[in-house]
Amino acid sequence: MTIFKELGDDCLRVFLEKGNREKVKKFCKSLLRKKFVVKVDYKKTVEEKVVEIGYGEVNPYVNSEFFPINERKGVVEIEIEAFYLENEMTPSEAEESLKKHGLHPAEFEPFLSFEERNPEIRKQCSVACLGSHINYGRMCNMWYSYPYSFTTKEGKSVLTFTFKDHVFEKGTCIPAVR
Fold this sequence. Notes:
Helix content: 25-40%
Strand content: 25-35%
Shape: globular
Order of helices and strands: HHHEHEEHEHHEEEEE
Distance between the termini: 30 Å
Number of strands: 9
Structural class: alpha+beta
């Protein structure tokens, strides 16, 4: 309600007028999405980035063998939008939701840069990288998963994977780009 106080009585009256319900919903949802400019250093290995972020536990398959550094060179600034799921969704449903908003999932390198810049987000909710995946088929021909981070009840931050049929909980953050 603080936002309405800041907008003033006239804006509040217009928001509450008949026919503006959808506009109000859209406006409120826009407040939930935040944009961040992150610096992605394509010179660093996945292992170096993971150490800098300081995860308490990392799946051993989060490495340069399974996530080779993108062909890009140097340091690049990328605007990433924190997109929070409004409902429980599978990865494919989440990607469809992103598309409806003109977004697509961030790749793994920007995802790691987003995680480094915003450690408080994974303390509040899970964060999923739908722009990159690991295909364990090279080893056992059955899993296809996405990088996924969260903080345990004990406060340990974890970077692991989730399966393609996993259902993300409402409020999961998907770093996305336009």
